[in-house]
Please model this.
Amino acid sequence: MHDATQKIQSVTILGATGTIGMHTLDVISQHPERFSVFALTANTNVESLFKLCQQYAPQYAVMLDANMAMELQKQLAAIHANTVVLSGQDALSMVASHDEVSIVMAAIVGAAGLQPAIAAAHAGKRILLANKETLVMAGSLFMQAVEKGGATLLPIDSEHNAIFQVMPRGHGKHLADMGVRRVLLTASGGPFRNSTVEELKAVTRTQALNHPNWIMGPKITIDSATLMNKGLEVIEAHWLFNASPAQIEVVVHPQSVIHSMVEYIDGSVLAQLGNPDMRTPIAYGLGYPDRLVSGVSSLDLIKTARLDFSAPDMKRFPCLRLAYQALELGGTAPAILNAANEVAVEAFLAEQIDFMDIPRLIEDVLTSATIEVALSIEQLVAIDTQARVSARQWLTQQKVAIAC
Ligand code: NAD
Ligand code: MG
Model:
């Protein structure tokens, strides 16, 4: 319950124009007595950010792109808005670490979300982490920054949010010390759960963008179709819950009603269930430890009727195997996997490569790279750049091979 004497919490939403960003604003709008919007950020979408600034009147609006920021500033000046418009990576970090901010929703897609999330960690914010790529690229350094900065980290990815909800408090120690045997990460299996390898080779962009259960941005939708999303989530779970790869089992569950589970050493398995709607984990993160109304409807178990489970097929979906491999390799390997995946997904969305080229590209880049110990964010950013160069070379060689 909300205490009337409680201070209104100021929120920065990184990636406000995206799916998670918009869902966050939806939940915030339902609780004006609890939250105010401090800053909203976007990559290049002036039209969307302008509309959001009109509606929420944030103190700051940040666009990564300087020209787009100028355009936004012009449009806001024309309506005499008081929002200050900034641009660039440093401005993203500034609004993520500003003294007036209590909560940071980290919902930028991809490696671009790393630096502002680190800034929020150093500044001791409550971080609602949707950007799983931060933990994939820099899990160890990010968790250290959270601890050193005194930040509160709340997972927003539905699976990790589910695990967080049913895990005993005080995680960070070994799972066994808390009576936990393992975590069970559920996966919808994506739109091609039952497709043959032959069918997978012929998958089109439109088919891959059509997820059966969740509405999400294009990158994570493709990741869900290749099962790389689940692979990234295995790495995410490793860092969030201090779970070894052997303690993280992926279970295909096509209905997406059980969002994940925790198995205890006495054989108990606790699960969190709900309709597949990201406003539930977002409301949980915003309100924690209170529960907030999110706008999500009641789960109708009679209508759901059945819950199915099966093992993932790593032969048809090699991306999941590659993610486990990167986690086992450790050091800079997950950052390389992530960068190669981002380039591969972009190329698939641009119809430059086939669906099954995505794991081929990632495997080639990962196996040809030298894996180092992860020591600093600067090093990981350089490794990310280098892996993207290798991935683009792979694409060029591919084009040459096809032309010959
Ligand atoms: P999206 O594509 O809908 O939105 C991405 C947001 O990031 C946009 O606001 C965009 O302007 C901004 N952005 C993109 N590139 C940027 C850059 N280079 N610099 C600064 N800002 C940039 O993505 P989404 O579906 O909202 O996902 C966001 C994050 O949340 C991803 O990491 C995704 O894996 C994670 N996530 C999403 C869902 C979901 O249901 N959508 C579920 C779990 C986790
Ligand atoms: Mg997820």
Notes: Residues 157-159, 233 surround magnesium ion (ligand 2) (CB under 6 Å). Residues 332 and 379 are 9 Å apart (CA to CA). The chain has a mean pLDDT of 96. Residues 377-403 form the longest helix (27 residues).
